[in-house]
Design brief:
This protein is mainly α and 96 residues long. It contains 3 helices and no strands.
Length: 96
């Protein structure tokens, strides 16, 4: 395999890594934004009655689980398929 093809494949993998990071970061930001909006509505919402306050408490409880999974994603070690593909490409000169 020539160097031109190897460089093109490496560039495509790096581009896919960058877009995956941007998408994951954006979705994590949306999750945290919704959580903070729910907290604001719970504590500072003047139009929230007791019935809706209970629903918001339930939603916040479920969002704690979502936030835990989001934190696990960002801070735990994981096997990234793009990273493995980059290593294979560098070692063998061929993509997966």
């Amino acid at each position: 395999m020539n160097d031109e093809t190897l460089k093109d494949q490496s560039s495509a993998i790096e581009k896919r890594k960058r877009w995956n990071f941007i998408a994951r970061f954006f979705l994590s930001g949306v999750i945290f934004f919704v959580f903070f909006v729910l907290l604001y509505v719970l504590f500072y919402g003047t139009l929230v009655t007791d019935t809706y306050r209970d629903i918001i408490n339930i939603l916040i409880g479920t969002y704690v689980a979502v936030l835990t999974k989001t934190a696990d994603y960002w801070f735990k070690d994981k096997d990234d398929p793009e990273h493995k593909e980059s290593e294979t490409l560098q070692k063998n000169g061929t993509s997966l």
